[in-house]
Amino acid sequence: MKIEALLTEAEISQEFAEAMEARDIPEKFFYWHPLSVRSWLALSHDVAYESRLHSWNLLVDEVETISSHFDSIVAVISLGAGDGAQDVPLLKALQSVNLDVDYFPVDASQGLLEMACAAAEDEEVDTLGLKADISSPMHLVLAADASENPKLFVLCGNTLGGFDPLDQIRYLSQCMHEGDRLIIDAEIYESATALSSRDNPVGQRFAFAPLASVGITKDDGDLRFEERHDERHEGLCVITRQFQTARDLRLTVVDREVTLQRGERVSLSFNYTYTVDAFRWVLTEHGGLKILHEFPSPDGRYLTVVCSR
After folding, report:
1. First and final C-alpha spacing in the chain
2. CB–CB of 105/127 below 8 Å?
């Protein structure tokens, strides 16, 4: 198993301590600690996210069409690859149309990255894992430079929604060259499910896992999910998560003491959903990409698209 570290465990540990001091925990820490890994694996298999897999499977079924411009070899660079479970069917489908496939899973989580590499190696796919922070423009550039072959970037599982989508799509599009493709998906906004698909036992465990990793319990405060609209463009909806302490807490985080006073709030990242038109706007008008194919889930809750520069 080959893994290159652009983000070391020492670095991410210090960043987590700084995030706790700032009362603002970014997305990457929800996949880092073993508690978070287990919570994410449970969430990714939850029935609430079956629509995402339906959309993805429709794309995999059309792999010959979406990969027809690749000659003989393709580098699949999966940004936020997780355990690789969603990537493996795509890798196998690309092999089935006689393409040589090199796989580069990218993730900040050492544990998940090892799972992704192992899953691909089991299918005899040449694999190099990259331990990196995909919110960093520099790490995106370095990941994109991992291969000189034509690239198929993958950003799925509503991964774009865990970052500012306007910034992230701009950084990503700048890494793409003529002939490259991007597979990206989004959760389509639905008022009836935007909160309920997250504010449930499985979603709560996932959101709470970084706090649990430093000894905070649910008796120490309240976990809250809120929905608001991003006024930068119509159709952008963001779900925020916050933990408000019910008592004073003294924590040891890596090498420092962090004190949370009663009533303080800790921000637990956020998640964007979009109307279909807003998602297209993010990709085309803001990201400068061209949408080549669309694969909506049968229930309309997820949309997976293939883009080019």
Report:
1. 33
2. yes
- Per-residue pLDDT tens for 55-96? 999 999 999 999 999 999 999 999 999 999 999 999 999 999
Which of 294, 297, 289 shows the shortest CA–CA distance to 306? 294
Longest dimension (CA), the chain: 61
* Cα–Cα distance for residue pair 266/241, rounded to 1 Å: 9
pLDDT of 47 higher than 80: no
- DSSP conformation class of 189: P
Q: How many residues does the chain have?
A: 309
Q: Please, are residues 273 and 194 in contact by the beta-carbon 8 Å criterion?
A: yes
Report how far residue 166's alpha carbon sits from residue 281's, in angstroms, rounded to the nearest whole number. Answer: 10
17 three-class SS: helix
Give the pTM. Answer: 0.95
Encoded amino acid at 297, one letter: S
